[in-house]
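Q: Can someone sanity-check these two? First one:
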Amino acid sequence: MIALVGLWVAPVVAVGLAVPLSAALDARSVEIPAPLTVTVGSREVDRAIAVNAVATLAAQPEIRTTAVGVLTGIGAPGPVVSGSEVFAVNGVAVLAYRGPVLHRDLNRDDRGADVAALSSYLSSLGLLDPASGGDTFGPAVQASVRALQQRLGVAQDGVFRLQYISYVPEGATEIVGAVAELGDQVSSGDPILVAAAPVESVVLTPVSAGNLAAYDGVDLALRLGSSAVDVSGVEVTGAEAAVVAAALDEAVRTGAARVEISDGAPSTYSGGILVLRAPETTGTVPSTAVLIEATSVACLLSVGPSGGLEDLTPLPLTTATAGNELGTIVVDEAAIGAQVVRDVSALAEKDRTCR
C-alpha cells in the first residue's frame, strides 16, 4: 500500500515543483538586468500652475464739459473715438480729445507742450500736416484751427478754445450712459457722460493651497486654452491689466475660461494656467539615483571614465524635487549628461556619501 501511494504522490510533487521552476526560468530568460548607471537627462519645465484671475474695476470715468450753456446734444452709447462728437452745447458739437490735458485757449505765437499736443490732435483729425506742427502756434496751426472752426460752424478767427473739446480720461474706451439731460444748463467742469469702468488690476492666485512667490521676477504667460497672454507678474495694473482682462473675456467667449461676477465685487476668472514664458531647462534622473544624507545634503554619484563603481565622485545638488513623471527627480541643469549611479541603495555603505 505504501508503495502504491508513493507511486501516486511522486508524479504530483514533480509536476508541482516543475511548473514554478519552469516559470522562473522563463522569466529569467526574458528579464534584462537593470543597468548600474544612468545618464542625467534634460527636460524643459514651464512650471505650469492652475490659477484664478481676479479682475478689479476702477471707478467709472466721467467726460466733462468745458463749454458753458445749454446741453443740446448727447452722444449715443458706444466706443469713444478721438475727434468724434460726444455732446453739444448751444448747438455746437464738442469733440472727444485724448492726449495731454489742455488748460488754456491757444492763439497765434503761443508756445509750449500744450501747443504741441494741439498740433498732434489737429493732425489726427486730418487738418494739419504733421511736419507743419510742433510747439509753436504758427500760420499752419492757425489755418488748421480755422478749418476746425468751419467744421464746428463757429466764427473762424483762428483761436483754439477749450470749449471745442472734452477730455477723455485714460481707460475710458466706451460710453455707457449720461449723467446730464438735454436742456440742462451746464458749466465748465460739469460731468456729462460716463464711460465703462476700466480694469484697475488683475491679480493671479493659485487654485490650490500655496502662493506664487516663486514666480516673482520672471517672465510669465497666462495660458487660456490654446492661446496665451504675456504678464509681467502675478499682479498687473493699468494698460497691461486691460489687455489681460480682454484676453480673459475672449477666453470666456470661446469656453476656455469661466467667470463669476458679483455686484460690487471683483470678477473671478477660472481656467487659466500660469507658465514661464521661456521654459527652464533642468536635469532629470530616476529617484533612486539621488542620495540624500541625514543632513539633507543631496547629490548624485558620478562614475569614472571606465563606467564602473570603483571610482565615484559626488555631484552636489541645489535642486532635487519630484518631477512630473512618477519616480523621477528634477535636478540641476549642470548635471545634464553626467553618468551616475542608477540606484545608490545598491552601493556599499561606505560609498553612499556626498562628501
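And here is the second, same format, sequence then C-alpha cells:
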Amino acid sequence: MTRQTGSSRRRPKSRARRALTIALLSLAILFVGLAGAGWWLYSHLNGNLDSVDLDKAIGDNRPEKVATGAQNVLVLGSDSRSGANAELDHGDVGGTARSDTAMLLHIPEGRSKATAVSIPRDTLVTRPECRKEDGSTLPSKNRVMFNSIYTVGGPACVVNTVEQMSNIRIDHFVEVDFAGFKGLVDALGGVTVTLDEPINGGKGGLQLEAGTHKLDGTDSLKFVRTRYGYKDGSDLGRIGLQQQFMLAMLTEIKNQNAFGNPTRLYKLADAGTKSLTTDSELASLTSLADFAKSMKGVDANTMETIMLPVAYDKVDPNRVVAARPQADQLWEALRNDTKVPASAKKSPATGG
C-alpha cells in the first residue's frame, strides 16, 4: 500500500480553497461592477437636476405653514425656446421663457388624494417685490399678466407671487420644460386621451377627431398647448386639456407599473431629470424618490382638478382676474387642508 505524502493529501483542500477564492473574487468583482454602475447611474441622474433655493431667493416674506401635514407643490411648465426646446415649438418670443402652465398641487395629510388648481396664464395679478437671479431687485407691480412673471423675475418670483395671492406656503417647486415633457411621454411609450370634441389647430397645429387617441411626445406637447381650434379658443379652454392630460399620464404610469420596472423607471427618470428644475430640498435623486414614494397613494381617479375661479377683467376683456369670494374660499380650504366647497369651484369666466 502506497503511503500518501503530505502534499498529495492537501491537494483536494487546496483546490477547494482555490475554487472558493476564485468564486469570492468573481463575486466581489461583480458587486464592485454593479456598485460602480449604480453610482454612475445615480451621479448621471443627479447631475441632470437644476435647483432653486426658495428661502434664499424669497427671504422672509413668506406665509406661515398652517396645515403642517399637507404638502403644496407648485408645478410649472416653461415655454423656453432655447436649447433642445427650440426644435419643439416655432413660436417667436424672442428666446425668453414664460410659465406656459401653472398648477398648485395640494396633497392633504395622508397622501391618499390630491387637488390640482390651474392658474390661467392670462390672469392679472399683483407681483410682489422679487429678488432676481442676478441679485437685483424687481419692484412690485399691479395688474401684470401671470405668465409674464417668470420672464422678468424667474421661478422664485412666481412662487412668491402664488404665495402672496393665496397666503399658502409653497413647500416645493417643480418645473418641466418642452424637451422634458416630450421625453417623459416618449419614455412611457405615449399617453392615451379621449376627446368629446375635435381639435382643429389649423396650419401647423394639432388635428384630432373626437374619440380616443394615443399621443407621442410631440403631439402631447401640441395637445396641452392647444388654444385655437378647440372650443372657444381661449386660454381657459386649454386648461381643461392640460388637466385631462395630467390625469391620463398618471393613469398610464400606474397601468404600466412604471415604478416596478427598473428599465422603464430609469428611462422615465433620465427623461424627467434632464429638463427638470426643483427647489433645493428636492434637488437630489434620493429626495425626489422619497417624495414620489410618499405620494404612491395619490391616484388619478381620486385627484380633483379645479381652475382658479376667474372673471373677465372690466378694463380689458381679454384678461381675467381672480373672482371673489370664490377664489378666497378656494385658497382658504387648501390653506387649512379642508374640503373645497362647491361654491369655490364656480368660475364666472368659463372659457367655453
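A (reply): Looked at the second one. Confidence is low (pLDDT under 50) at residues 2-10, 29-37, 81-86, 88-95. The CA atoms of residues 13 and 62 lie 72 Å apart.
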